[in-house]
Amino acid sequence: MNSHRCPLMKTIFSFLVLSMVVILPPSVAQAEHEGKIQILLLGDSTTEGSIPRLLKPKGPHLEQVIEQLLAAEGDLPACHVINSSLSGEYIRRLFDSGRYDRDAAKLPGLDYIFIRYGINDRARRKNFTENFPKDFHELLARLRKDHPNAQLIPMTVIPFSNEQASKEINDLVFDVAKKEKLDVFDIYPRYAAELKKGPNMLNYRRYPLAKVPEKYHALVKPFVYRDRVQVMSNELDPILGHLPGWYRDRHPNLAGYNVIADETTEYLAKLLREKKAK
């Protein structure tokens, strides 16, 4: 290379770099990682979706649907949704099992963290009304420490238990959020409204094979996993719907998770647009 051209080339290169810095718009992400907004879902079985994953492994499942719906908006940045939830989990177990340190503490570049606990906490945590808020505050403190750039979003539970039990949980979530100066993503009303279209539309059927009359065993054979008949929706209802407890399991089926995904997308899209506007 001609030595007389070097100063000129350096000047041109510096100008191009400076132009890129000036022209490129600021990222919507606070802690963007690998070019995408990073969204973490923390919760129990009503977030994990283990049975839908068993029955329909290819999905799409909750985190994938949220990504697809956000992309379909057309004006939002690329997003990556991480579903780090576990069946049977409650906040104390999240810590005591070591799963928080293993699966959540070191995730890079988180921008939004959705937190939905309470159902198992109420069933398994002693002195629930006292200890659940303490556990929730502890979780928020850890998340702030480990992910200081993330926006923390406490969520209400879906209508899994009866209305009174759900209200008890959700009232505590609102109280914790108020003390922490956080907004609550209240998903309960939308899910409850969808259930009015059909009380069993959004839950799968999971029923012990031993309780199914033997004359139906050939019929249900394609739906048997381990020792249970497990059906995503209503196809066996006309034949087995009369069995006591057939509709007892209230975990979401894929339709239920799509309600959660759709409402979550609407909530997130608003946040992302507000951030972009600033």
Automatic annotation (TrEMBL):
Keyword Hydrolase: yes
Gene3D superfamilies cross-referenced by the UniProt entry: SGNH hydrolase
All residue ranges annotated as the SGNH hydrolase-type esterase domain in the record: 41-202
Source superkingdom: Bacteria
InterPro entries, alphabetized: Ester_Hydrolysis_Enzymes, SGNH_hydro, SGNH_hydro_sf
Keyword check for Translocase: no
This protein's UniProt keywords: Hydrolase
Pfam families cross-referenced by the UniProt entry: Lipase_GDSL_2 (PF13472)
MF terms (GO), sorted A to Z: phosphatidylcholine lysophospholipase activity
PANTHER family: SGNH HYDROLASE-TYPE ESTERASE DOMAIN-CONTAINING PROTEIN, THIOESTERASE 1/PROTEASE 1/LYSOPHOSPHOLIPASE L1
UniProt protein name: GDSL-like Lipase/Acylhydrolase
Source organism of the structure: Gimesia aquarii
